Amino acid sequence: MRILGIETSCDETSAAVVEETGDAAKPWAIRSNVIASQVAIHREWGGVVPELASRQHIRDICGVVERALDEASTRWTDLGALAVTQGPGLVGSLLIGVAFAKAAAAAARLPLVAVHHLAGHIESLVLHNGEPPLPAVVLVVSGGHTSLYLVEAPGRYQLLSRTRDDAAGEAYDKVAKLLGLGYPGGPVIDRLAQSGNDRAVALPTTRLTHADRNAPELKGDLDFSFSGLKTAVARYVRAREKGVGGLFSKNEKRPPTPFSEADIADICASFQRIVVTALLDRLFDAARRFQVKSVGIAGGVSANSRLRAELAERGRRREMPTFVPSLQLSTDNAAMIAAAGLRKFRTGALAPVDLNADASLAL
Ligand code: KG4
Ligand code: ZN
User: Fold this and answer.
1) Which ligand 1 atom lies nearest to the CA of residue 191?
2) How far from chain centre, in Å, is Cα 294?
3) 304 touches ligand 1 (CB under 6 Å)
4) In the prediction, which pLDDT does 284 show?
5) pTM for this predicted structure
6) Fewer CB atoms < 10 Å away: N or C end of the chain?
7) 287 touches 202 (CB < 8 A)
């Protein structure tokens, strides 16, 4: 069976056709995965502007879906179902995908499956690598989320912990902004960090030990926190700027910057070392605690080169199989939504006709 997936939760309009292979070990194959990125539009504003995002989704959705079907040599009548991201995300953006998918499903007389965006990220691992040895712990780390899930059986996701404040990708984006590196921050910090000294700037790491009052069912000691780290980078930058303030005359157009390229690389490398270590420490703590057979990392930040390299290294040392998606499947895309949709379709869970977008949908 083939399914058409649609993803519009943030600033990528994406549609994909994924089909079942009949092979239980590697259940799905991608026939097409079309992604129209809005990064160039939002870059000018230093981050995603929700109103601009929804307007662009409206412009792009029809063309993106047509191209996904075309590249997959698939007609509407070849499809067995549709899958769409219901949430979480920007509500205006989600609504475009949900409204389109409901209308298309009704017109083509196809069943519709509502998919949780993070279930999509988790299933990107299976889509790319095949079924991992279970139980597994999966870290979903993106611009909006940093969450650990225990997967004991295919399609069953149990939340173990999450960030108390900023997501890791959000910390990358904010630090890049304050260093004047543009949006999105992850890829540029990743690149600049490669030539930096990761011990040059002393930055704090946050280790939580107490339960979160807002989520008493979680123990809390596997939780993440990145806002303190971001503030520490901001304080360091401000202190250095004050130090050189006197060197610039009042009419100086360029803001005084005390940083050479090498300094920026050092800040990026030092920041990235703390983030990657915090993510991997918690992931492997959870792996030990739940005695899992494999670990995975998905979501936009899983594209990070240092995170990938250290995950593989730690996995080798502990003889623990590790999984990441391909670079294209790391950031938002509809193929992962189609995959999670196929998984859910096979459980018989179809979306009601009055399906609505849900900006803070829980998984
Ligand atoms: O999964 P995603 O595309 O969208 C959300 O669901 O949020 O993730 C986007 C996030 C952004 O914060 C971006 O800065 C980050 O992923 N990102 C990276 C890298 N590539 C993208 N972070 C670190 N290193 C990268 N190479
Ligand atoms: Zn995402």
Assistant:
1) 26
2) 20
3) yes
4) 97
5) 0.93
6) N
7) no
Ligand in closest contact with the CA of 48 = 1
Distance of CA 171 to the CA centre of its chain: 13
pLDDT in tens, 180-230: 998 899 999 999 999 999 999 999 888 787 777 777 777 778 999 999 999
In the reported structure, the alpha carbon of residue 118 is separated from the centroid of ligand 2 by a whole-number distance in angstroms of 7
Q: What pLDDT score was predicted for residue 249?
A: 46
Cα→Cα distances 312→139, 224, 280, Å: 14, 21, 11
3-state SS of 284-329 is HHHHHHCCCCEEEEECHHHHCHHHHHHHHHHHHHHCCCEECCCHHH
Q: How many CB atoms lie within 10 A of CB 51?
A: 10
Is the alpha carbon torsion for 69, 73, 77, 80 positive or negative? negative
Q: Which of 35, 117, 331, 360 to mutate to test the pocket of ligand 1 (most atoms within 8 A of CB)?
A: 331
Regions of the chain with pLDDT less than 50: 246-249, 252-254
Each residue of 251-268: pLDDT tens digit?
A: 544 455 678 999 999 999
E strand or H helix that includes residue 151: strand 146-151
Which one-letter amino acid corresponds to residue 349? A
